[in-house]
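Ticket #4471: complex job returned nothing on first submit. Input attached below:
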Amino acid sequence: MIIDCAVYRDGTREDTGQHSDDLAAALAGLGEDDFLWVGMNNPTGDEMNRIGTVLGLHPLAIEDALEAHQRPKIERYKDHLIMSMRMVSYSDDDITTNEVNLFLGANYLLTVRHGGPSLVEGRRRAERRHDALSHGPTAALYSVVDTIVDRYEQVARELETDVEEIETSVFSAEPTSDSTRIYRLKREALEFRRAVVPLKEPVVRFSETAEPPEARPYFRDIADHLGRAAEAIDTIDHLLDNALTAHLAQLSVQQNSDMRKLAAGATIFAIPTAIAGIYGMNFEHMPELSWPVGYPLCLALMGSACVYTYRRFKKSGWL
Amino acid sequence: MIIDCAVYRDGTREDTGQHSDDLAAALAGLGEDDFLWVGMNNPTGDEMNRIGTVLGLHPLAIEDALEAHQRPKIERYKDHLIMSMRMVSYSDDDITTNEVNLFLGANYLLTVRHGGPSLVEGRRRAERRHDALSHGPTAALYSVVDTIVDRYEQVARELETDVEEIETSVFSAEPTSDSTRIYRLKREALEFRRAVVPLKEPVVRFSETAEPPEARPYFRDIADHLGRAAEAIDTIDHLLDNALTAHLAQLSVQQNSDMRKLAAGATIFAIPTAIAGIYGMNFEHMPELSWPVGYPLCLALMGSACVYTYRRFKKSGWL
Amino acid sequence: MIIDCAVYRDGTREDTGQHSDDLAAALAGLGEDDFLWVGMNNPTGDEMNRIGTVLGLHPLAIEDALEAHQRPKIERYKDHLIMSMRMVSYSDDDITTNEVNLFLGANYLLTVRHGGPSLVEGRRRAERRHDALSHGPTAALYSVVDTIVDRYEQVARELETDVEEIETSVFSAEPTSDSTRIYRLKREALEFRRAVVPLKEPVVRFSETAEPPEARPYFRDIADHLGRAAEAIDTIDHLLDNALTAHLAQLSVQQNSDMRKLAAGATIFAIPTAIAGIYGMNFEHMPELSWPVGYPLCLALMGSACVYTYRRFKKSGWL
Amino acid sequence: MIIDCAVYRDGTREDTGQHSDDLAAALAGLGEDDFLWVGMNNPTGDEMNRIGTVLGLHPLAIEDALEAHQRPKIERYKDHLIMSMRMVSYSDDDITTNEVNLFLGANYLLTVRHGGPSLVEGRRRAERRHDALSHGPTAALYSVVDTIVDRYEQVARELETDVEEIETSVFSAEPTSDSTRIYRLKREALEFRRAVVPLKEPVVRFSETAEPPEARPYFRDIADHLGRAAEAIDTIDHLLDNALTAHLAQLSVQQNSDMRKLAAGATIFAIPTAIAGIYGMNFEHMPELSWPVGYPLCLALMGSACVYTYRRFKKSGWL
Amino acid sequence: MIIDCAVYRDGTREDTGQHSDDLAAALAGLGEDDFLWVGMNNPTGDEMNRIGTVLGLHPLAIEDALEAHQRPKIERYKDHLIMSMRMVSYSDDDITTNEVNLFLGANYLLTVRHGGPSLVEGRRRAERRHDALSHGPTAALYSVVDTIVDRYEQVARELETDVEEIETSVFSAEPTSDSTRIYRLKREALEFRRAVVPLKEPVVRFSETAEPPEARPYFRDIADHLGRAAEAIDTIDHLLDNALTAHLAQLSVQQNSDMRKLAAGATIFAIPTAIAGIYGMNFEHMPELSWPVGYPLCLALMGSACVYTYRRFKKSGWL
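Support reply: We reran it on our side without changes. The output follows.
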């Protein structure tokens, strides 16, 4: 579905009809440096084909825009290029990605997204930069891409916060079951990486040949932001790996401490049990049995043995 | 065995005889942009030699087509190239690969497979694209390769589903023996990777020099699909690694919890046993023994000690 | 805030006013090889814009200098370059990084830091090398960068000391909980690496084209120091990884030894308990019970069984 | 020791004397495309020097041929090249490597091996290809190298069989001590890799410049076989890594199950022991003691408690 | 301190005075292909500055020679180069490295070491090769470097021996605490690697441009030896990693076996204890108690229960 459609003359927006005839007419009427900006969401095959005919898109590029699981890339065709990206959003340890395909021609920009958050923020950013916009659609492309990449860095920061939560949990005193959450975050980081990393190299190459040349530092800047996001993901991934190993070590320490408690407990009870066993024997000649103080003495012996053993274990850190 | 054989004139199929004399005659009678398409399955050495002589194949290329464990590659000889691929199918945690060798000459395409699913789907796809087919055998090669590579992505998706099953099992409450299945899937992912990854680089290079130039974006698209499949395999591999480590962590957590139960159980029983031991002693002067309420009191003491200990352990999470 | 500002004529400092008009005048009055050196700390957007206008900085470069989480890099614009670095300080297992942006133009050096230790040390080093300073701002840039990079090596040495502490703790006899500290240090090493490693490649490239050519070996030397620091971080990281695995092994050894103690203890107590149980049975015909030496003999038997078992376990290393 | 020596004229063998004078004479009498083939085994320094003088070998090349632990490589000198390889054989989890040095000049091939299996198979293969052999010594070199590399693939297949044995053992029900064998195989795989991998790159480069050009596809084919062997070793290595981790997981599962059995066993015995303890107490007023059915009832109680507990544990999988 | 100093004319040594004036005179008096060889040990800053002035060394090169923790490298200045290496010695699981800096000019070689073994062996090797030495100082450099690199291979072999000791210990029956030694060796291997690996690339590059060209194969040979040493270190590192994991697996196996012994022991004792408990009960009507054979029968029952259980556990491998 076409959700927005306008012609930019000297950087100023003029709304236009959304029918393909209107678009063809609009295209025909463009002066130098003017351009057409069309925004689509969840286009059907028909819609894509119609707009593809108007703009003269390559059949494979149209196919790419319809497929939902494109790999992030920049593909150049004879007179246009397609930039496939993923928008990323994150909530509750869950990363959602939505594909966006951006078609850049000499005098048009077509943005095609499959669900996900609106790109209107990118359009607004572009429209604030009148001057740049008056030099053609590349500045508009920059604004959209910049908006999406900014979001990458924000999501990376949110992931970092979650990693910190996990660290706190892993190194708490109790045996926790953090492996589930660590695994989950690693999974999300993997998906995030697949959205970010494949894009960096093509953006660098694009930044070297983008037209007009004034736009190049801007795309270099985007490549830089992508590099930063990729680095943050790497760090997150490493930290999660380390957290998992540390988690294993913590569990081992915990188990050791539990085993020592078990051993200490068994020993403490074993001594009075052994003494009781001895005085429960039925020998006829057991002088202690007839002592009046035999029983209290025996209890005292048991008690002190327990207390003594307990203290020893306490002191040596086993209890 | 030759299983299919036809001449394509202006993109339209004409069946032809399968004897090598027929093939030589067919080749001789081809006009510009016409081509011969021969499909073989499990060829014997004799058959390969005969067809090799007709088409003028290099002896090493013929040898490659007969050997079953070829590495995926594109090898260029003076006037033809050989593309070795593996068809992949997957069921019950088991990946099966079958080798296919595709010989592309100026006016012929020879497909040689060793068992495995039929390539007829690829042929049908090609025949639907009359126009492309009328420019020579490259379009036919594209259709076959595209069909095979599509299958890679499907298998990758099936593997991903199995990984999700494993995740559910690993993070379930019970101590499971998932390592066997994780190992098995890792093994299959390795085999899958060996079918996919070595092909990417040569296809990229081929896409830069393929003739006619109109075919190039199509092979670039295949390289892209291969890249996506390779990336999916990487992700699967990483997830399985992580799942195995998480599995170890889960086992450790489980063991900790079992050890605590053991310790708690031992302690609960130790107390009444110790009390019984005490009142089983044979001292003459044990006043409690002659109290009428001695026995019920003692039982009550034992009972409350058990209940108290049980509750303590319950509260602290040891039971 | 501008915290220092001077003109260097023939390598000699002359203080100048800090207002942007003063700076513009100072710039205008510079002879060949003279240059202006401005130092800022925590600049506001306004301040950066003002100085950017005076020096003719690119808008993106100004933006970079204001953002706090820049990736270390060297970015070239038409008539100046920006070098983004991080100063590193370390105390109590905690690495703090502060960003510094260095703008090098033909006749100025602008240093912008965000908090952190003062760069005055670098300025002093530069002023000691009159001769080099008289050839333009590159020598001043070298001194500042050299000071920062020296600090990297010092921090690496401090980290190495901490790793040695951890090693001592890991291989001590007691089960320690070193994983927390190992994790923490790995985290810091990661942050450290992010400050150091991305800078090496750009500095190498800069060292090949720096003007004047006499400055090149000096920047090559800095690249070398960066390489050394990066190598030290790699070593630290590897050692920490190994220490963590060794820690796990030590815990396993410890647990084994504890389990053996538990088993040995249980066995030692089990024997007298079993004997006591036997003579506590109520059979009418148990001749030992009426032996006068029955009881002492029994005690002796229990005692020697305990001693014997204890010695056996001691000898086999279980206790 | 020279173990074989012959001149090949037009691809046909003519035996010749083995004395260095004979060799010098034979060399002098060679026509274009004729060549001398000398095979040595365990040469002494003297022998190598003598033959080196006759053939004009570089002193360093002679030294290399004498040293036993050469790294696989192709080294070019002014008018000859040396190819250092390792022959590999495998039995009983043990890989043995023997060094072979092949000297290729314009009109001679010198093969020097240090023990290990005979190269006669390679010679026979070469002699079968009369036609190729009539174009000079490169075809002879190809045959020898091809024979050695074929052996790599065979050894790789044998290793794969052993890995499968290990897998069966690791995933069997009993706790096995597979780590020893896994370690051993990893060690052998490492040694194997050192024989195979360093050779690939030089062979690829050699295949691009080999003379006569007709030989090039053959060496490309060898590079391909090396690539396959290297890939197989990688797979083996990965599988062994995974098997070791899976082994650890299996041990953990086993230990968990043992601990549960221990806990269950302790609980089953603890209940009758506690009951016996209670009725072993000496209270005067214990009505059950004088009941005629007291004892059988008590035994029944004990028995049913045991059976009940046993069944509970059985059902929950602890026993 | 200058420890040796000589002029080589036509490859023959002539001692010369060690004062800097002597050196300057000696330098001035050199014919073509003659050169000055100066050896220093632990030079002070003054000494280095003096000799640097005589030989015309770059200030940064002098600084490098004084700093003790240089990274191995080859640095080219306008008319000389500096090669920084580390000598390596190994004893008692401990690798010691000493830095050597070699300055090669057109007509001099200056070797500067910081402690460590003497380089006299390299000098002697050089002096044996009169012919090479008569072509300038490069041959002398070769001899010194060759001597140092030979030592790398020897140390690698010693490390390999130690790894074999560890393997024997890890796979012995007893639970050993090998992790300490494995860690230690890994640490040393890391240090060793830092001495060897960074040198390889620069030596390869040097071998391609060394003068005179006859020297090139010799430096290529050194690069080859470095490659071999680096490969050996890699192997050692991998083996140690694997040994550590195998060690963990062995500990797990050991712990499993101990736990089974504990469980078996507990069960063996639990049965007679339960029986004794039963006949220690005070029921009035326990017919067995008054049987004359009651007691011996009971003992026999206990004994056979113990023997039976013991045999069962023995058979199933738990004991």
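The first helix of chain D runs from residue 20 to 28. Closing as resolved unless it happens again.
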